[in-house]
Design a protein that fits this description.
There is one protein chain. The protein is mainly β. The chain has 2 helices and 6 strands, in the order H-E-E-E-E-H-E-E. The strands form 2 sheets. A 4-stranded antiparallel sheet has the order 4-3-5-6, with helices on one face. Strands 1-2 form a two-stranded antiparallel ribbon. A hairpin with a 7-residue loop joins strand 5 and strand 6. The protein is globular, with a radius of gyration of 14 Å. The chain starts with a helix and ends in a 6-residue tail after the last strand.
Length: 123
């Protein structure tokens, strides 16, 4: 299962209902530090949840100094799959559903699973 999750998260674009990156500058803000801007090459921690067991959504991106390593450290355990990973931000191409090609969009690379909460844990 861990290898499957790593495969799903690798290359995932850092964009969701909760996280918006600046495609023009290829940056994303740390959810915890209002003044920290993250760029390609930065190691980050990422919180994810699987919406209706269909689509993984990034709930937050955090700069490395925060040391977040568990689901419970960043979100309530809910009746859905949730995960926390360590990753390196990488610049790669992305076609947003309603937009122009973004050649330097940030994606997740070098993904390591830190914690996983299955759906059953939220009941």
């Amino acid at each position: 299962m861990e290898a499957d999750l790593i495969r799903e998260f690798t290359g995932l674009v850092v964009e969701s209902l909760y996280v918006t990156q600046d495609f023009g500058t290829a940056t994303v803000a740390c959810r915890h530090c209002a003044d920290t801007t993250l760029v390609s090459g930065d190691r980050v921690t990422v919180a994810l949840s699987c919406y209706e067991d269909f689509s993984w959504e990034i709930e937050g991106v955090y700069c490395e100094p925060h040391g977040i390593d568990s689901v419970e450290a960043v979100m309530d355990v809910r009746a859905e799959r949730q995960a926390v990973v360590s990753a390196v931000l990488e610049a790669s191409g992305y076609y947003p559903p309603r937009g122009d090609f973004q050649p330097d969009a940030l994606t997740l690379g070098e993904v390591t699973l830190l914690d996983f909460s299955p759906t059953e844990a939220g009941y």
